[in-house]
Specification:
Largest sheet: 4 strands, antiparallel
Order of helices and strands: HEEEEEEEEEEHHHHHHHHHEHHH
Number of helices: 13
Number of strands: 11
Structural class: alpha+beta
Radius of gyration: 23 Å
Length: 366
């Protein structure tokens, strides 16, 4: 997922002032049930009807986007159009119109664990001139959505995340799509060690540097960001001992810090780690909306709570493959410090950061 802070803050703002009030209104009018919450939003559209001084909100399947595209051949009305029939790279979104007037709009579309946005606010300008801006339609990436649908239908990424988790690879969201695709095409990369190089093509030093900047801007991991930065720097300097020992104690602290900040727990020692994972999960699912698929949250929470990280040390067969907090912090393991184990803790950090990012997004705290 590209961490564009401006986009995240824009979406968070619109969720706060328009989308959530719309959902509340629908609940109050009996159109939505509280029992169906959290509502998984895969797309939303906001249309500003300036002539009637109102805002129109469309959610999920309610959205109809009109696309303008040039054909490579004559196409009859109602005819099925294939991608090879059009110049898809020239596709543009047609602004919604009400009473013949062009309207401003904002569109959010989920791309599994990321998103794309389209917007045109020009018609809201007081001196907007229809003729002056008629050729400024926004490009629409048809191919992105075709590839996205094809990938999800044919490669079953949730299934792959679960398999990788069962094989001691935490479900870092940025494994999608590249690593998931490579694993699908060659499952043997898990056992022959090649998956490490595949993962590091994505989770490279630039990736982490961008995330550190993003987390710092959003006040992630308050009072811990310097530890995390040191752990990442140590990893890319091949100092896996330092990377592991700096990072491992932070997970319980990060979760408890967040729960304390939200008033879910009142004391650091109130609950142990596993109950705190349950509390964080309950907090996430107590929100009215989910902006990413519920399945990915379920997979991450299961890995955090029931995976090798917090299991009894006696259940660990190979500490050079399985991450485990107790075995490290209590000094039970030796000679386990290697690139694979250090990388797995970084993936676990990415998983946890994804959860917190989502909650900050939907609670307007970015």
């Amino acid at each position: 997922m590209e961490n564009n802070l401006l986009n995240f803050r824009t979406i968070s703002h619109l969720l706060n002032i328009i989308i959530l009030p719309e959902i509340e209104s629908r609940i109050n009018n009996g159109l939505f049930s509280n029992a169906a919450l959290p509502l998984e939003i895969n797309q939303f559209q906001i249309i500003w009807d300036k002539s009637n001084n109102r805002t129109i909100v469309k959610l999920n399947k309610e959205i109809e986007i009109i696309i303008s595209v040039r054909g490579k051949r004559a196409i009859k009305q109602g005819e099925l159009v294939k991608i090879e029939d059009i110049y898809y790279e020239e596709a543009t979104i047609k602004n919604p119109e009400i009473n013949g007037k062009r309207c401003a709009y904002f569109i959010y579309k989920s791309l599994f664990l990321g998103f794309t946005i389209y917007f045109d606010f020009l018609p809201n300008m007081p001196d907007f001139d229809e003729t002056q801006y008629k050729d400024l339609d926004i490009r629409y990436n048809i191919l992105d959505f075709l590839n996205y649908n094809y990938f999800n239908n044919n490669f079953r990424p949730f299934e792959k995340f679960e398999i990788l988790s069962d094989n001691n690879w935490p479900p870092g969201p940025s494994l999608y799509p590249q690593v998931i695709l490579e694993y699908h095409n060659n499952p043997g990369i898990v056992n022959n060690g090649q998956i490490i190089d595949r993962i590091l093509k994505v989770y490279n030093s630039n990736f982490w540097n961008n995330y550190i900047d993003f987390w710092s801007s959003c006040n992630f991991f308050t009072n811990r960001i310097h530890y995390i930065k040191k752990a990442i720097d140590a990893f890319f300097n091949n100092d896996y001992i330092s990377s592991i020992f700096i990072l491992v104690p932070q997970f319980e602290g990060i979760i408890k810090d967040y729960l304390l900040n939200k008033g879910v727990i009142t004391d650091w020692w109130e609950k142990r780690f596993r109950p705190c994972v349950d509390e964080l999960k309950n907090l996430i699912f107590s929100r009215k909306i989910l902006m990413f698929p519920k399945e990915i949250f379920e997979i991450i929470f299961k890995d955090l709570k029931d995976g090798s990280f917090w299991t009894n040390t006696g259940n660990i067969i190979n500490p050079r493959i399985q991450i485990n907090r107790h075995g490290i912090l209590h000094g039970l393991f030796t000679s386990f410090e290697c690139k694979e184990i250090a990388l797995k803790y970084l993936l676990l950090l990415d998983s946890l950061a994804f959860i917190l990012l989502h909650d900050k997004l939907v609670t307007f705290n970015l």
